[in-house]
Amino acid sequence: MPTGTPEELRLGQLNLRFHIDGPASGSSLTMFEFEVAPGARVPAAHSHDAYDETVYGLEGTLTMTLLTVGGAAQVHAITPGTSLFIPRGVPHRFDNLHSTPSRTLAVITPGILSTQYFHEVAAVMKASMEAQAPPDPVAIGQIMRRHGLTPAPQLAAPTQ
User: Taking residues 127-144, what's their average pLDDT?
Assistant: First the structure.
């Protein structure tokens, strides 16, 4: 499998660094780091239809909120050295509720989510910035569904 300089992409208050793209691994896994700016509440809550996600804390504190089967919000603080497994189908979101950036490693298995998803979302965000308008939620939702994510608007951001 080829190695090289990780591809980097900025998506609003989120910086992504892709280490292994799904297609490059034969769809075995996708692995990327994401850095979340202080105070950022991103992305839209969602679930994954056909893949699991494991996150591992590298720097700072990332707040992961998962929706339980009973409908309760379950909040997890991801700090350096801690991890969280998010099974497919579980609605979740993440936020940085702190005053320092957080950096987290994400591993997607199987690797059917590729960098293409993030590039498509970045294009919608760029267009909204150029139009000086908020990102089009319908367009974002369409991209999410096309790449195996289901929006979960019922999962609100945690309060501090």
Answer: 91
